[in-house]
Amino acid sequence: MDTLLADCRYSLRTLAKNPGFTLVAVIALALGIGANTAIFSVVDAVLLRPLPYADADRLVVVLHDGRNPVAPANFLDWRSQNRSFERMGAAEYWTANLAAVDPPEKLLGLRLTSDILPLLGVQPLLGRMFQAEEDEHQVVLSYRLWQRRFASDPRILGRTLTLNGEVYTVIGVMPQQFRFAPFWATKAEIYAPLALGPRAASRGGNSLRVFARLKPDVSLDQARSEMAAINGNLEKLNPGTNRNVTVQALQEKVVGDVRPALLVLLAAVGFVLLIACANVAHMMLARAAARQKEIAVRMALGAKRSRVIRQFLTESLMLASLGGAAGLLLAAWGMRVLVTLDADRIPRAESVVLDGRVLLFLLAVSVLTGGAFGLIPALGASALDLTGSLKEGGRGSSESIGRNRLRSLLVASEFALALMLLIGAGLMIRSFAALESIQPGFDSSRVLSMVVSVAGTQEAEPHRKVAFYQQLLQQVRGLPNVQSASAINHLPLAGDLWGWPFAIEGLPKPRPGESPVAVYRIVLPGYFGTMRIPLLRGRDITDSDTPNAPGAVVVNERLAKECWPGEDPIGKRITLDDKTWLTVVGVVQNAKQGEWAATPGKELYLSYLQSPAATYLTFVVRTGGDPATMAPALQSTVWSLDKNVTISEVQTMDQVVSDATAKPRFNLSLLGAFASVALILAAVGIYGVMSYSVSRRTQEIGIRMALGADRANVLRHVVGQGMILVAAGAAAGLTGAFALTRLMTKLLYGVEPTDPLTFVAVPLVLGVVAFAATYLPARRATRIDPLVALRYE
To answer: pLDDT under 50 in the chain at which residues?
Structure first.
């Protein structure tokens, strides 16, 4: 320990005497270690840690096609017939307008069967959970809602709340960390019992997400086999109702979509760290060469080679420790930035913390980094020719790139790593450019949207609902700076998607489960004009489309082409319920629906005046200026008609479009930042090695010039040697990129992982940077005075 402490003190003194070297090395290491730690903290929280439920590895989710909800009768059959699950429960999305508060608020919630919370193994913080067959007018609050709206009142149990005009009793409060469901309805703040009632026999109107817990002795594959058999029998009895049912581990369902992006980012920061290590190894090699006489003296006085190696490794570990300490600060800042910028798209973002596991990772990375960049310089420095190193005079050494194989390898590896990372960033840039070029089918500029719900108010009464929305629309249109306004049930991109089967007049009735399905929209007059969705044929929904008029429907271009290919769709009829026929009165251009990069599916628009079942509408208002400034005026207009009506999801359509592309933009930003750091580190590393090589070859260059070599020859010689390393690194980097970019397939849109343009442009750009980093030292070499270079030292 005394020897170790002495080595540490000596290392600190040595590093303090070289503040420039120490600062540059610590910054390079801090960037690499800090970035790795920040990304690892997210990977650890999202991918590696189990979900915060009891025995989470036994939890599964049962859906159609891995994503679509389930009909009530199917769920009840599965629950009664299976032998693989301890418990099976269902959840249904629910929104509740909280009244008798100022202002009224729309709460996002879930209705749950009594099995759900017990199968999760989570106990309430206060009160109790639902019991089987309990009155559905009971609610359990999330910790966030209890804290936000009720000031963490411990007397909340037994208190009544007015939700959608009905009285509910609070029976419990969930723990602070509780989130459910982790892949869907992630912002739910209130939970109520799910009573299926008359819907229990329905195999349509799919609205349930089904969760289950495997029995201890049952594997996931066994459960899948049993469910396949059950659904096969149900499909025979009820054709078209039990197809493509999947049983998926809940953990996989939560993280499956985000895993590729996180692994790519983790690999990217790993490359940054390797490049940083190569840079510091360059610097350590240069310092070792400058300290040859010091080391030779120590070894001549009796120091063993192992003692010299230990001293160098101690210095390396001290540098790595300083870099790790600085990296810890960078990681703490980076984690906050990551979670703040992308909390809505990172599942379980609230669990991303700087805890013991992350600190242990940082410590391990720091130690491994110190060993990685310190061992080879230590071995090289301790293997000296004592006689040559202790000579007082003599000509300096002449080092060539060929004899400096280690430095050459480090330069080539830096270039290769930087090239692979930059190609990944280039593919993301190309992909994002393709996403940005997508036309949404509507004009998002200067449009404000907001959801107005009358649920639970006197305006929800059937004879008042339509009149309220018509009056509100009239007053909104009369506001200053409003050019046009209308409303729709679900906003494109940001709203829900309801798929609705329909039948076409004149065609045979489809077999069960094979009816065409379209996205179901209901609109008020003027919607297409407000959103500037081009009307391709026919007419818009108008004020004359009332209950007393024939049923009217406007369809999108895709539905028209697929259902009536080569025919004029105007005047054709469809039905949604086998009773009421709707006449196609117009065809509009396809508009984005749920996902920005997805091809729009079939879509139909009905008049709200003829289908006024919904108790909420999303108003869209086109303004003459900044739409965000209109929000207070619109809210005042709504509450002037009824102060109990709730307003939610106030946002501009530009925000909606921006959110639709936020995930690829976030991935691009991070990968681009890491690639930029890698580019800078690689350029600095190449410059440093070439500069050092020139300084070591001063006498060789002087001799060449004394023997007649002109400056152009020297320049070509030095640059040529540097570019040979660049070419070797480019070959290795292109080979690695060709293999690794295939892992990015799920992150790309409109571009192949082996995109030729990217694979050509990126090496050229990086080659120009490398040329500049090589040219500057080479140019300095041409200014060497042969007389000065040939002097004895």
So the answer is: 392-403, 792-793
